[in-house]
Amino acid sequence: MNMLSKLLAIAVSVSALTFASAASAQEAPDALVKRISEEVLNTAKTDKDIQAGNISRIVALVEEKILPYVDSERMTALAAGRYWRQATPEQQKQLVTEFRSLLIYTYSGALSQVRDQKIEYKPLRADPADTEVEVRSQVIQSRGEPIQLSYRLEKLATGWKMYDVNVMGAWLVEAYKGTFQSEITKGGIDGLIKSLSDKNKQLAARSSAKK
């Protein structure tokens, strides 16, 4: 499985979980995933700008429709691990901002690759009273093996929000955790913030070049 397929899987999974409106806050998480994922795939398949790789259009879509429904703070805190508690409130804010930007570029780069994928869902193993669940599914492609996906969601006052994605056995947060720890070991919390900021600037420059 190449990196492009992994990014596509992440993008589809996150998109599927996060196009929820306030009106659907009480909808079961698996029903929400199934209903919304179809909307996301249809949009990605039919939007000419997205298909053409228009980064501005894709980034705008991610910022408007996806990121508001991702628990960015929890994702960042989990990725930072024990170091999260050592960071000042301002450093935590900066980390969340930079990590969110990194995710935007990750999702944006993958959404333009959506073509003929379909999603199949597995039965939800959860009780109605659960406030955290794992939704499992797989992306079916015309070529290659199905991409196994799992999503961790939490139920907040505003509805269900995604805070982690598993692609072929690898949790996204855990993958970033190693990178975060390495950067913090070398340069502290500020070193990690700078590293994320530099990476985002590079990605922004590449995106601008493609406009």
* Unreliable stretches: 17-24
Q: Give the strand tally.
A: 5
Largest sheet: 5 strands, antiparallel
Strand order of the largest sheet: 1-2-3-4-5
Shape: globular
H-E order = HHHHHHEEEEEH
| Helix content estimate | 55-70%
Mean pLDDT: 81
What separation lies between the terminal Cα atoms? Answer: 29 Å
Helix/sheet category: alpha+beta
Question: Counting H and I runs of at least 4 residues, what is the number of helices?
Answer: 7
Strand content: 15-25%
**Rg calc:** 17 Å
Quick gist of this model?
The chain is built from 7 helices and 5 strands.
What do these coordinates show?
This protein has about 210 residues and is of the alpha+beta class. The chain is built from seven helices and five strands; from the N terminus they run ααααααβββββα. Strands 1-2-3-4-5 form a five-stranded antiparallel sheet. A hairpin with a 2-residue loop joins β3 and β4. α6 crosses α7. The longest helix is centred in the last third of the chain and has 38 residues. About 5% of the residues have low confidence.
